[in-house]
Amino acid sequence: MYHYAKMGSRQKRLPILTLLLGTATFAFWMWLYPQDLSYQEQNQLFLFTGSYLFERLSLPGGLADWLSEFLVQFFYWRWAGALIMASMAMLLQRAVWRMGRTNYLVSFIPSLLLLIYMGDVEVLLSYPVALLLSVQLCPLFLHARWHRIWLIPLGWWLIGPMILLPILLSVMAMSSIKAKQRLVSRSASIFPASGRTYQSSVASKGLTELPILLWTAIVFFFGARLFASQYPLRDALFGLNYYRLVETLPALQWIIPAATLLCILACNLPVRYRHPALAGTMMALLLAVGTFFGVRATYDRDTHETLAYDWLIRHERYTDVLRRAEKYQPQNPVSACSVNFCLFTQGQLETRLTDFYQCGTQGLVLPSIRDNMSDITSAELLWMMGMPNITLQYAFDLQESIQNGRKSGRFMQKIAACNIVNGWYERAIRYLDILEHSLFYRKWARGQKALIQDEARVAADPVYAWIRNVRFQDDFITNYNTLDLMMAILYNQNKNNFMAAQYYEAWQRLKQMEDKE
Amino acid sequence: MKRWLPLLATLLLAAACTGSTQYSDALPVIYPDYIGVTVPAGIAPLNFNLPPDYDRVFVRVAGSNGGKLKTRGRWADFPIRAWHKLTAQNAGGTLTFTVLGRKDGRWTQFRNFVLYVSDTPLDDYGITYRKMAPGYTTYSRIGIYQRDIHTFHEEPIIESTLTPGQCMGCHTANATDPSQFMFHLRGKHGATLVQQDGRREWLTTKTDSTIGNVAYTYWHPDGRWFAGSINPVRQCFWTGDQRTIEVFDLASDVVVMDMEDHSLIVDPRFTTKDYLETSPAFSPDGKTLYFCKARAFEVPRYVDSIRYDLVCASFDAENGTLGDIETVIPASQAGKSVSFPRPSYDGRWLMYNLADFSVFPIDHKEADLWLMDLSTGETRPIDEVNSPFSESFHNWSSNSRWFLFSSRRDDGLYVQVYLASIDADGHCTKPFVLPQKNPWKYYHNTLYSFNVPDFTKAKVDFRTRGTYEAVFSDERIQATVK
């Protein structure tokens, strides 16, 4: 009975440790990896429309998906993103803890595992949202009796296969209580704490284990066949919206729910430590060390550093990019392109080019690459230089390279701007109208819509006027291999286009370096 | 309550027609522009929207042969059954539309307009098309869909989510008959799927003697053969503000596939290096193979010098032999380029595209539809349907009295499907865009273009089960060369 006796004093400490988890998670996203939040935000575009909600709800797991996209739009502000992530970590820990209340530190494990898993930037927030909802649904499923008949398909439809967690928990609870009844042995039960609460509802009337499992299998299999017929069966069974990349199923995607289930069970086990303070300290230390190494293992440094450059460039913090690159620079063309662009913005492209990692001319301007990240900086610099059509191509391809088919507010903004600069207002309005349904791009979209009503205002807009002024005067076919010549043409057309001149010179230097190698 | 609705509607109209209602001599500005179009009886309702500053619309439709229909709401949304009944009753006649719109609390009644209901039926089930973002090199979502043209029901035949990483080519049925169709998947696990009477075959049509897989295909009417062109397609981009993309073939050849033994007829006259051969189409009697042919130039440098002529060769379906190539339309001599020849299934007409150069008219604003009278050889631009924007891919209905085509006329970028009829003398009617439940919302919000549309006589039966496994297993029937 020790654990029950100690419960009162322990419960007073609980919020402090939960708050500590929240604070640490907030700090983690706010200062260590804010670029991940930005990456998530720029790979979706949440719209406040009924059709958007309907589109999400038309697939299994749609509610979790919709909720996650609603939350991710706030990642536009990093503090809001960090706050959301911290809140979710705390809510998950509390939800796990509420299921047993005997083994407090164990309840932190799912939240910490999630933190480790989110090091993979392609994990969508719908995954933790679904996990959190599924844990929150556990008490309901334990009490549901025959209502599980409709709760299982409904839960599957709303949050996806993560609903398996409360289903399995309720099955295990039933088995455990039945075993207890049979053996009349208290030690046989794995739900001593919950047993008092759930015993009557779980063990009596209602579905028994085997029919529940059979019904679940039927719902999952036929649901996937019927309602997700345009997806591979494996994807439909393991979740359509938990991971951005197709044909990929990271091990942690199923390990974390399994671990959460085990944690919930562990939270129900009676624990008796001879030295509870020491045991608690040791376990906390173990969790902290485990999380540290887990994060180190999953957070690929180069990927996150490259994402950080992009995030900083998006916020025009060019000197911060250079400061970071002085300490550590990933050896890839995307990082080289970002650093070189920041060098240009600081007027240092000529003098400090060789101070940083270079990989030939592609480190200056990247060719068209079919992913949702590499060409962002290239698109931006070509826009400033006066090549809006290549920017349009890059921005379009960036958006279309988001593998789960979502759109992007950031990229769509650029697509609209490219259309405006070309005078294609009808096309621009289509994008602006879509952006108008978003929260964070609405103001910009309305401003642009008002702007294009008056050609004189467009012509006077400093950005559009500059690009129209420096862009190619002749219509010819572009070719990446002759980009330096195109820069030369731009400079010769307009001697104020010193960006074209500086990039041309840098291109020649890098070409010479390439030739020497 | 239902029995009071007509009375309420009449009272509303009466109220609208008196007092504060103002009358305008102008025709209403409706989206889509359905004023004066000709439709077949039984087509999906031609719902339309007024400009956004009109918050309510009231429409009364009266048929010349009788029948009435009323609707009101935020947009003109006609009930399907009543619409079908009205159009059937007025086949060969007209429908007169009285439109009232409310703006700033005041109703305006516009000048009535007329819509013609053709007495020529369009009995095909619907149309098929590919939906994809109209852009550059990457597509996150792409799919082939079928749409019932008598209702608003659209359903996917296959979407790229089922075959991740594989680009989806054109869906080709045999003269609108979906019991025999094919489509091509491009990518690491690329293949040509041929489905005949429910039986599927996954083919690799690339051989040692050909430059790639068959891409653009056309069935021979007897179903044993299909002609295809092999096109390693590339894109390049323009710097100006009039056009963006240029699509071209690095090379292209025309071959004919025998589905009996999965062998290809690779005739050296149709696979020359100095010339580009593409876009094959059989005549409805199966005795002639039409295709486009151009002198090859270095690309992309001289891409604007590539101009295709329409040529043809006789085809012997007994032993699969091709005759001599004859020029049908020497467009290159006039500085023009032909693409997508499509003979009508009754053998009367041949429709094609004409642009300044290239064989991909979709990116050419000047590209128009042209019609050739196969009995006289006369050709003319179809001014009744052409617009200042690009008209491109087109196909015939099974009775050859209707045709559809894709056009960028809406905003210059997003492609929509238009339908029009043609009479025995070759006169075409004003086309109408494929109806939608809420047209403005649908067409303005979509980020997809409608590609390679075609009529389908009946619903396409394609079960997705087993498709993923078949694609990724890479088990293919390897085509051979005869």
Commentary on this structure:
The complex is a heterodimer of chains A (517) and B (482). Helix content of chain A is 69%, strand content 0%. Chain A has 27 helices and no strands. In chain A, α5 packs parallel to α7 (126-143) and α9 packs parallel to α13. In chain B, strands 1, 2, 3, 4, 5, 6 and 7 form a seven-stranded mixed β-sheet that branches. In chain B, strands 11-12-13-14-34 form a five-stranded mixed β-sheet, with no helix packed on it. In chain B, strands 15-16-19-20-35 form a five-stranded mixed β-sheet, with no helix packed on it. In chain B, a hairpin with an 8-residue loop joins β30 (402-407) and β31. Chain B is globular, with a radius of gyration of 24 Å. The relative contact order of chain B is 0.13.
The CATH topology annotation of the largest domain in chain B reads as Neuraminidase
Strand content of chain B: 35-45%
Work out the helix count of chain B. Answer: 4
Radius of gyration of chain B: 24 Å
- Tell me the β content of chain A: under 5%
CATH architecture of the largest domain in chain B: 6 Propeller
CATH class term of the largest domain in chain B: Mainly Beta
Record the SSE blueprint.
The complex is a heterodimer of chains A (517) and B (482).
Chain A (H helix, E strand, L loop, with lengths): L1 H31 L1 H9 L7 H8 L4 H11 L5 H21 L10 H9 L8 H18 L4 H12 L4 H20 L8 H12 L5 H19 L5 H6 L12 H16 L9 H23 L2 H14 L3 H10 L5 H13 L3 H4 L23 H10 L2 H13 L8 H13 L3 H11 L6 H10 L3 H6 L1 H9 L12 H11 L4 H19 L1
Chain B lengths: L4 H13 L4 E2 L14 E3 L15 E8 L4 E6 L6 H10 L4 E10 L2 E4 L3 E6 L7 E7 L9 E7 L5 E6 L7 E8 L2 E10 L4 E6 L2 E6 L11 E4 L5 E6 L2 E5 L7 E5 L3 E6 L4 E3 L9 E8 L5 E8 L12 E9 L4 E9 L7 E7 L5 E7 L12 E6 L5 E3 L9 E6 L5 E6 L8 E6 L10 E2 L5 H7 L3 E8 L10 H7 L3 E2 L1 E2 L1
Parallel strand pairs in B: 1-6, 2-7, 14-34, 20-35
Antiparallel strand pairs in B: 3-4, 3-5, 5-6, 5-7, 8-9, 8-33, 9-10, 11-12, 12-13, 13-14, 15-16, 16-19, 17-18, 19-20, 21-22, 22-23, 23-24, 25-26, 26-27, 27-28, 29-30, 30-31, 31-32
